[in-house]
Amino acid sequence: MPTIHVINRAGEPSDFEAETGVSVMENLRDNDYEVEAICGGSCSCATCHVYVDPAWLEKLPAQEADERELVSDEPTYQPNSRLSCQIEMTEDLDGLTLTIAPEA
Ligand code: FES
């Protein structure tokens, strides 16, 4: 199983073994990382906002227009912002490193 490295909202780093075939958001939510994911992954709430380590950004699937529009409207937006519900977890993402964005 691939590993995800996470820095939580308290700034604490930790790792966990991720499930593939589901989104990064589902992995974070199911491992109690305080990702609310109010919309359930339909790209309409932005409560699954994360900052992806820049070294990983280009290895991720490209951002669709609806994700880009939603996340760039967030007050906590940064150039490495992604909505974790729009990233499917795969073996290729072993070592993915991200930070949970602050609540907007
Ligand atoms: S869970 Fe709502 S936008 Fe990702």
Describe this structure in words.
Strands 2-1-5-3-4 form a five-stranded mixed sheet. It has a single domain, classed as Roll (Ubiquitin-like (UB roll)), CATH 3.10.20.30. With 104 residues, it is an alpha+beta fold. It has three helices and five strands, in the order ββαβααββ. It has helices at residues 24-30, 54-57, 65-72, and strands spanning 3-7, 13-17, 49-52, 81-83, 96-100. The mean pLDDT is 97. FE2/S2 (inorganic) cluster is lined by residues 25, 37-39, 41, 43-48, 83, 85.
Low-confidence stretches: none
CATH fold annotation: Ubiquitin-like (UB roll)
Distance from first to last alpha carbon: 32 Å
Q: Strand tally, please?
A: 5
Structural class: alpha+beta
| Portion in helices | 10-25%
Order of helices and strands: EEHEHHEE
Which shape, going by the Cα principal axes?
globular
Main beta sheet strand tally, sense and closure: 5 strands, mixed
Radius of gyration (CA) equals: 12 Å
The top-level CATH class is Alpha Beta
Share of β-strand residues: 15-25%
Strand order of the largest sheet: 2-1-5-3-4
Number of helices: 3
Ligands in the structure? FE2/S2 (inorganic) cluster
Number of structural units classed as domains: 1
